[in-house]
Structures are given as C-alpha cells and as structure tokens.
C-alpha cells in the first residue's frame, strides 16, 4: 500500500497540469532520430532534434561503436576513479582537449552532469555566481547545488553584468566570483557576447564559465563559440555536450590542466557515477575526428539553416533574431502556438511548440532545428506545410 500523502500529491498535481493543458505527452519515435522520424506509424519531417550534423545515424560512428563494444563490452564496469577509466576514455579526453584548444579535458556522462559536477567543485557558499537570466536549467541547478549566491543579470545585458560584477567584487562578501553563460542560447539561437564578457571578467577578476552545448560542432569551424571569438585561452571552463552536434551522449569540461586535475578528484558525478559506455566513447572520438578533419557537415548545416530561415521569412513568419541554425517561428499566444505545432504534425512536419514558462509569456514559438542531414526536398516540403498551416490559421 503506497503512502496516502504521496497519492494525494500526485493525483492533485497531475490533474492540475492536465486541466491546464500543460501535461506533456511523450510520443516514442519508432526508429532512428534522423531528418525524418516515424511516430505512431507516420513518417514526419523532423525539425526538433539536436542532431545538428546528422552524426547520430552516421555509419562511421556506428562502426566505431560496434568495434569498441566487441573489444570492451557494453559497460565501463565502474566509476572513473575506481577502475572504470578505460584507455578509450583517456583517448576521448585527449581528443576533446585538442578539439577545444585547451591543455586538458574531462568527460562526464552528460552535459547536464557537467554542470552538476564542475560548478560545485569550485564554488561554495562564500562565493557568488553572475548568471545570465536565460541560462539553461542545468546551469541553474548546478549553481544551486554549489550554495554560492546566484546573481542573475538581464539577458546579454553587458551594462547590467558590469554593474553587478562591480558590486559583487567590491562588496567584500565573496571569496570568488564567477560569470556563467550559455555560448548559444537555445530558445532564440542568439550568441553570448563573449568578447565583452571576457573583458568584464578581466577587469574584475571573474572566473569565466561558458556552456557551449549548442555551439560546439556548429560555430568556430566546429570547435564552438569560444573558438569562434578566438578566446580559447581566456575562458576558464568550456563546457560541452556530446549529445547534440556530436550525436552520441556525454559531456565534458575543457580547460587548463590543473583545473581538470582538480575536477578529477573533486567533482562528484565523476567520482560516484559510472563512466559512459565504451561504445559511446568510441563513437564520440570518431565524431570529433570527423569534425577536426572536414567542415563538410558544418557547411551543409549552415546552408540548410539559411535556406529554411529565408524560406520562412519570405512566407512572412517572425523568426526572431537567431544567429545560428536554431530557427524559432514565433507565434505568440500559447494555445495558438500549440495548435500550430499540432497542425504541422498532422500535415507531416514534426516541430515542437515551446511556450511559457520555458520562454516568456506571449512569445510561444515552434522551434525548428535544421540539420546537415536534411535534403532540399525535405525543407521545401516543410515550407509548403508551413505556408498551408500559416495561411489557414491566419498567421501569415
Ligand atoms: C542541452 C544542454 C545541456 C544538457 O546536455 P546533455 O548532454 O543533453 O545532458 C546542458 N547545457 C546546455 C546549455 C544545453 O543546451
């Protein structure tokens, strides 16, 4: 017999969510998460994955995964600090450091875990963190976990950041002050103002932390937002994920060697959670090797993104101010946004709606993620559907 208190809590809260239309129903994908996906037997053009370069289904990665699985088995067998560090994990970390132009790197089980791991390994209750108000949920949770004082600054507002940096460093209240930002903001596709952030950090001796989950593989010839601005030696923590453009799973921190040494002895997900599978490590190495030897996939990604953006804009949609392949299509009102996404789905396009509280009220949008794996024909078909549904609903 389960707890009555729990039962009451669950029933009340689930009913409330469902009543408000906020209960998210998950549709399983029947097969690969490629440029098209099959859901409930219907094949749809997929504009919602983070598989920017199409690497999740790349045969070179699949082969690397299979070979490593044959050699090492399916699991790492232990946490990294006992005997779960396979030579393939070390090779991945060396490759990541080379890719990021840093002295060293440490791999984790996910990008989310990186933020759980790295922030609290360095920051504590005697410190303060300046955090962009639109930072990713895992950054927010990582900051909370550290018990440092979190000071939010207005999105990409450098005057606000500077004023708050000045106040925090001159208050005498904190031992260390860090500034944390996404490299690319995932809801609007805008790029953090890293040159200005780094300049402010230098002026006030702030620790710099950039989570480049959506920038790696996309900007800076693949090496990410920090490299894009030529700041590889000016940012203390470069966080990345292996599950978006890299197409597999995992995360990493790249930086100076002593920082990485410290994370290897003090970051809790590294010490207390099993390492990524040998197959995942091997496919990540393969993906990074591909990125470091060719820009073909990035070129295709940007071509496809430009094509989709131009097409949507020409049709009269509001696509916001994205500077990256992330292409929001802003509809506004929440229920209308959800209806728009549903109609796109019925017509063969999978583009998920994103509404309050993930984005501000009244700025509901359908977010499109074009990838290198889409063909022109798929994008044309998607644009035809957008035109049809947009006109039908009076949006364009
Ligand atoms: C997606 C994302 C993460 C999480 O990465 P996972 O590898 O999927 O856990 C972390 N930070 C940011 C900024 C992200 O966009």
UniProtKB/TrEMBL annotation:
Instruction: Establish whether keyword Ligase is in the entry.
Output: yes
What family does this belong to?
Belongs to the class-II pyridoxal-phosphate-dependent aminotransferase family.
Q: What is the protein name stated in its UniProt record?
A: 2-amino-3-ketobutyrate CoA ligase
Q: How does it assemble?
A: Homodimer.
**Entry superkingdom:** Bacteria
Cross-referenced PANTHER family, in alphabetical order? CLASS II AMINOTRANSFERASE/8-AMINO-7-OXONONANOATE SYNTHASE, LD36009P
Pfam families associated with the record: Aminotran_1_2 (PF00155)
